[in-house]
Give the backbone structure.
Amino acid sequence: MSKQVLISPSTDPCPLADLLEYSKNLIYNGADWLHCDIMDGKFVPAKTFDEIVLSLLSKRVNTTIDVHLMVEDPLDRLPAFARAGANVITVHFEAIKGTIAVINTINKIHELGCKAGLAIKPDTKVSAIENYLPFVDLVLVMSVEPGKSGQQFMINATSKIAELNAIREREKYNYLIEVDGGINKQNAGTVVSLGADVLVLGSAMYSAPDKHELIRYLKSLGD
Ligand code: DX5
Ligand code: ZN
């Protein structure tokens, strides 16, 4: 059965000065979403651009803005990211303390008119977020430790993708499965065959000489 594979290239490897041009080029070459990695220097050591830069960027690129918030206590910052043009906002399960806070965060993202995603780090099991799966639009499986691009794909992500796919089929849930970290031409077919719908590519996309060909190939994995 064929399915749609969405390609969401990451902003992380690109220097800030080139970001607008890089993003426009990706959209021109067929990318579906733009994966905007936001790091606060607390949840992860690195710090990236914030909602102010995002708002400048989102006004100039015509695509789905897929925000991956690697920040502590994301709840307070959600309105600013929604105003900045986010369409999908994904928060880390590990950054939120307690069941009620997780539910409040998902609800808040929806109230702001965005799709809500929940991300899990490599050491977090699918069972930890199982109660929230009926309420989210997307689950982001991290296949590297969050914090920087250019790391190697961690194989333990594959069983989580398969598990999320099985739960989705069994319970008739609707979330997309997004995979982020170390995805390249060699391993993308495996994650798609296990159930991934959205592929994030950082360094493999940034370094690809022919982005059009790479995006076309990745999308064909759903055929
Ligand atoms: C890592 C980020 C990723 C990263 C992906 O913390 O969330 O989006 O930029 O880069 P690659 O594909 O190089 O692992
Ligand atoms: Zn990311």
Summary: The longest strand covers residues 33-39. Strands lie at 6-9, 33-39, 64-70, 88-92, 115-120, 138-142, 176-180, 198-201. The chain has one domain: 6-220.
